[in-house]
TrEMBL record:
InterPro entries, alphabetized: SGT, TPR_rpt
Entry GO terms, CC: membrane; TRC complex
Residue ranges crossing the lipid bilayer per the database entry: none
Key words, A-Z: Repeat, TPR repeat
TPR repeats: 7-40, 41-74, 75-108, 109-142
Source species of the chain: Arthrospiribacter ruber
Protein name per the record: Tetratricopeptide repeat protein
GO molecular function: molecular adaptor activity
Amino acid sequence: MSCSPSDEELFEEGIVKMEEGEYQKAIEYFDRALDKNPEYTSAYNAKGVALYQQKKYDDAIEAFTASIDLDDTSYKPFFNRGNAYLEKKEFKDAVLDYNKANGLDPQQGDIYYNRGLALLALEEYEDAIFDFDVVLQANPEQPLVHFNKAKALLANNDPVGAIESLVTTVNLDNRNGAAYYLLGVTQMSAFGQKEDGCTNLKMALSLGFPEAKEWVDEFCQD
């Protein structure tokens, strides 16, 4: 007699395959686990993550929804489904899922950051800034969060705050050409700071950010 693997053993093997980047093999193991136990909510969630990694966002959403339908007390499938909606640029649906995930576990910083990105896309700038600030209060050494906060501040007509966030961004990450570009443009257009603006625009250009060339050619020729 042979002993077939249990649903938990199949699930664990799927997790191993996912960690190895073998997402299709992982999905096969999760499907086998679900054949044995159709109410295995974690297997649906994990399958959704594997599908998400393959950029199969609609299929991932279907798997996360199946997980939620079985158990709506974990923040993970809501957060993961929100991420899939974010990739599809369905920002309102993303925010709804992030709100639910946040209600289930308010300590997860990734929820605030990703919700901030969705709110920024929805032009809900003050709410986006709030979420980015929550993330930065927990760990201020995150240049990408400062950068996205700066974009929200600019859109919310706060160039002073935006420059502060952009300076912090480039101090933390001196390879961010987009941040140097936005910093230079803001210094020049909002405050007439040509010397500092040109320095930052030239830095953006040197880092391979081509949008800076037009500004440098027009305003920064000696």
